[in-house]
Design brief:
Blueprint (H helix, E strand, L loop, with lengths): L22 H4 L32 E3 L12 H11 L14 H9 L15 H11 L19 E2 L13 E6 L2 E14 L4 E6 L7 E6 L9 E8 L12 E3 L20
Antiparallel strand pairs: 1-8, 2-7, 3-4, 3-7, 4-5, 5-6
Helix pairs in contact: 3-4
Length: 264
């Protein structure tokens, strides 16, 4: 019997893709109860999953930086891959699959993809492909969204001023904590419980989409579990996506959950 040793503290991503036999060294199984990682029942006190009108305080969205980052930086590489691929055709084709989606699936360790329909939720494969294409550390296998819950370092995103454009966003399904969605941050609007993200398998395509940040108590669906980052941000781009409304008490957030695209 193989004995799996679970590290007591968070382990940084290695400087290469992980092999399938190595995955458990770096990523805890979904059944773990380790605080801050387990994507199980939402915890209102920590702001994970449940809607909480006081989380983050009163903030106003600001326009994220759109100009190209300095060449040769990890941030610039990720920016280029995400922005440039919005111009390409990532729509699902059925059988045979879209060659871009099939490539992403293969890069992520999913093997041959006979079709790109519902049997192959490819958001995780796309995120892995983006990191691979940008020359960054990535998971192999990396087809599952929840495999990135311990990638890089965690951002204390309940302080919304710490989130940056292109950060990795891992969402978890409230009704099934082994599933979720993975994408990259574009902008946030906490007052309206909304986060806009770059992501694959969003309406069967790669596109920008809006998702809910929190879920009202008792409601199923995706919620933001982790914001992760494994790269440095160049000077001039380390900018918050919101500004704090000074000298004002926190305002209640809109508890309406926005319609989101189906993703796993």
């Amino acid at each position: 019997m193989c004995q799996i040793v679970i590290p007591a503290s968070e382990v940084g991503s290695p400087a290469r893709a992980l092999e399938p036999t190595e995955i458990d060294r770096y990523f805890l199984p979904a059944s773990t109860s380790t605080p801050g990682f387990q994507p199980g029942a939402p915890d209102d006190l920590s702001g994970v999953g449940d809607f909480n009108p006081s989380v983050g305080g009163a903030v106003t969205p600001v326009q994220p930086p759109a100009n190209p980052a300095p060449a040769g930086t990890a941030y610039a590489s990720i920016q280029a891959v995400l922005e440039d691929n919005l111009q390409l055709d990532w729509t699902e084709k059925g059988t045979p699959p879209n060659p871009l989606i099939a490539e992403a699936w293969g890069v992520a360790g999913g093997g041959t993809m006979p079709n790109d329909g519902n049997n192959y939720p490819w958001c995780g494969g796309f995120a892995t492909w983006v990191l691979w294409k940008a020359g960054q550390e990535h998971n192999v296998p990396g087809v599952g969204s929840q495999s990135y819950l311990r990638y890089g370092r965690s951002i204390d995103w309940r302080d919304f001023t710490k989130i940056r454009k292109y950060d990795l966003c891992v969402m978890t399904r409230r009704e099934n904590s082994s599933k979720g969605h993975i994408c990259f941050v574009h902008s946030i609007d906490p007052a309206n419980n909304k986060i806009k993200v770059f992501g694959g398998n969003q309406a069967n395509n790669y596109k920008l989409s809006n998702f809910a940040i929190f879920r009202p108590a008792g409601q199923s669906g995706l919620y933001v579990n982790q914001i992760r980052r494994n790269w440095d941000i160049p000077a001039g781009f380390d900018l918050p996506l919101v500004e704090v409304q000074n000298n004002q008490p926190p305002q209640p957030q809109n508890t309406n959950v926005f319609k989101t695209d189906s993703a796993l």
